[in-house]
Design a protein that fits this description.
The structure is a single chain. This protein has six helices and seven strands, in the order βαβαβαβαβαβαβ. By secondary structure, it is an alpha/beta fold. Strands 3-2-1-4-5-6-7 form a seven-stranded parallel sheet, sandwiched between helices. The chain has one domain: NAD(P)-binding Rossmann-like Domain (Rossmann fold, 3-Layer(aba) Sandwich), CATH 3.40.50. The longest helix is centred in the middle third of the chain and has 28 residues. Bound molecules: NADP nicotinamide-adenine-dinucleotide phosphate (NAP). The site of NADP nicotinamide-adenine-dinucleotide phosphate has 26 residues, from α1 and α4.
């Protein structure tokens, strides 16, 4: 049985993924740690109650070294030497810019980079010792095809340069981790979960959040060295030949 930790799981994709994981057989999935800056929310309380303690809320503000250390200690205490098997770096933020990129506010750019890249790095490095103890050694970074440099023209009219730049940065962070830890048996990959109806994706998005969560879960279950260093796209039947910005063909996304 594998222990999972998902960041930014108070809502959206992270919460949906935790809900699906908690429905898996206990022989497959052990504890599911869900982190958020604020875990005291009705949605988190509801999931914890329905899953009889299998989903464990962890207050984590990765900006605060004490909060990060306390989160690692709590998880270490609960897994009792078995370590953490799968880390899902899901917490993320998207901001909008009016007009051309010259209007991109430095504050937006810095904040987006900090949340989407720096916090992903801080969380990953803090949990590495527990991941080393785990059997699976999987790190999934929830990225986006809008951060693909190769698809820059495809998403030309998506007015979120801070998000695009930071997800491109997250992709390179993923490559760095995948190279540095492959000899230890780690599988570190980036995955684009599709355009999903969440607070971040908006009500007009292509897919219900559960569709993206099921696909991410499918990759998490299959993950091993074969996924190390890759940028994955989900597969949704019927969307294989959609325009490139909405294509979910299960093939690797271009960097
Ligand atoms: N939805 C889409 O269409 C889509 C498409 C491609 C990729 N993604 C990626 O999927 C991931 C989840 O997105 P979502 O759609 O589920 O978004 P969401 O519903 O807005 O949820 C975002 C989560 O990230 C957390 N978060 C945001 N800023 C944070 C910070 N500074 N520190 C810690 N936690 C922070 C939020 O926590 P709080 O509740 O504390 O704010 C929340 O739990 C993101 O990485 C996003 O980029 C989403």
């Amino acid at each position: 049985m594998a222990n999972y930790l998902i960041t930014g799981a108070s809502r959206g994709l992270g919460l949906s993924l935790a809900t699906l994981l908690a429905r898996e057989a206990e022989s497959q999935v052990g504890l599911v740690f869900i982190t958020s800056r604020n875990t005291d929310t009705p949605k988190v309380a509801d999931l914890v109650e329905k899953t009889s303690g299998r989903v464990v809320p962890v207050q984590l503000d990765a900006n605060d070294p004490k909060s990060l250390a306390a989160a690692v200690e709590l998880v270490a205490d609960r897994v009792q030497g078995k370590g953490l098997d799968v880390l899902v770096n899901n917490a993320g933020v998207q901001t909008w810019t009016r007009g051309k990129v010259e209007n991109l506010s430095p504050i937006d750019l810095t904040n987006s980079f900090h949340t989407n890249v720096t916090l992903t790095h801080l969380v990953t490095s803090a949990f590495l010792p527990l991941l080393r103890q785990g059997k699976r050694k999987v790190i999934a970074n929830i990225s986006s095809t809008v951060g693909s440099i190769a698809l820059g023209t495809t998403f030309e009219h998506h007015p979120a340069p801070a998000y695009k730049i930071s997800k491109a940065g997250m992709n390179m962070l993923t490559v760095n981790y995948s190279l540095d830890y492959r000899s230890e048996g780690f599988s570190v990959f980036a995955i684009s979960p599709g355009w999903l109806r969440t607070d971040l994706g908006g009500a007009g998005a292509d897919l219900p959040v559960e569709t993206g969560a099921k696909e991410v879960l499918r990759y998490l279950k299959a993950a091993g060295p074969q996924l190390n260093g890759r940028f994955l796209n989900i597969h949704v039947p019927g969307w294989e030949n959609a325009p490139a910005s909405n294509r979910y063909d299960g093939k690797d996304a271009p960097w």
